[in-house]
Amino acid sequence: MELLFILAGALLFDLLLGDPQVSYHPVAIIGRSALMLENYARRIMGGTFIAGMLCACIIIGAVTLIALTLVAAALHLSVVTGVIACSFCVYITIAPRSLVMHAEAVKRPLLEGNLKCAREKVAMIVSRDTRVLDERGVVRSCVESLGENVIDGVTSALFFASVGWLLWGIPGAAAAACFYRASNTLDATYGYRNERYRRFGTFAARLDDVLNFIPARLTLIAIFIAAFIGGFRPFNAVRCAWRDHGKHPSPNSNWGMSAFAGALGVKLGGRTFYHGQWEDYPEWGIEFEPLTVEHIAHTQRLVVLVTLTFAALCVIVAMIIKAL
Q1: Which structural domain, as residue segments, surrounds residue 251?
Q2: Cα→Cα distances 304→19, 42, 84, 155, 308, Å
Q3: pLDDT in tens, 170-219
Q4: pLDDT grade, residue 1 (50/70/90)?
């Protein structure tokens, strides 16, 4: 039952504390440390692939070791303190409440008819230029962001916590979850497709792709169950994900986005405004109804259900594996 208490505790911490936007948040510290180490590495080795790989390995290794040591020390006191410490470590790697609250910040001004404010709020969670978006474009951006980030912001971390627990117990759950979050943070820091990071950020970007490969596909199972529980379109979610997951540059992101599109019965993707020009992207999903602000509320509910479903599946599968 350890894993049940670990994941339940992590979700409870997230419900109570959320994702505070403070400079001393561990993820913010990881990002700043990565930038400091990058500057040092570039002075010695330049912007090479090896320099980027070494920076990534040092940051990821340090974060993993710190989590392992802290939880092992807490576990030395008692199992209860070990589980609480582990739950807290897993908590800092997930952000379901943050996803829901960001969507709420977009939904509220739309309901009040304040499109300008909604554009500003959605700009905080997407990289596209939001100044030209109409209401449908704002809703689409918000739904896509939640469909993408439910994987790297929730399910992947829960997956690695579960794998870590299976392999190394309570300290392993914390270490594996923090290993994943550090890797994902480095992708967000180094993994840009521009001249500065074309070589330096390759290792971090590819590592993140590899780590998300299995969880992204397993998330589809949770979306199917969550869509069934929530009264959405579960079979359409699977159909759209299977058909449309390749219609995106990322090998993993569109498993969530296309499944959300199918579950909601809408179309996502398509023409997008980046860096002052329109770019044509494929569409995914099946449009049973046009996008409206109500779909943000539906997406929020789907995120909550997917989070709970995936956590429950992790516990059930881990207990079965342990019993074999």
Answers
A1: 2-323
A2: 15, 42, 22, 11, 6
A3: 999 999 999 999 999 999 999 988 899 999 999 999 999 999 999 999 99
A4: confident
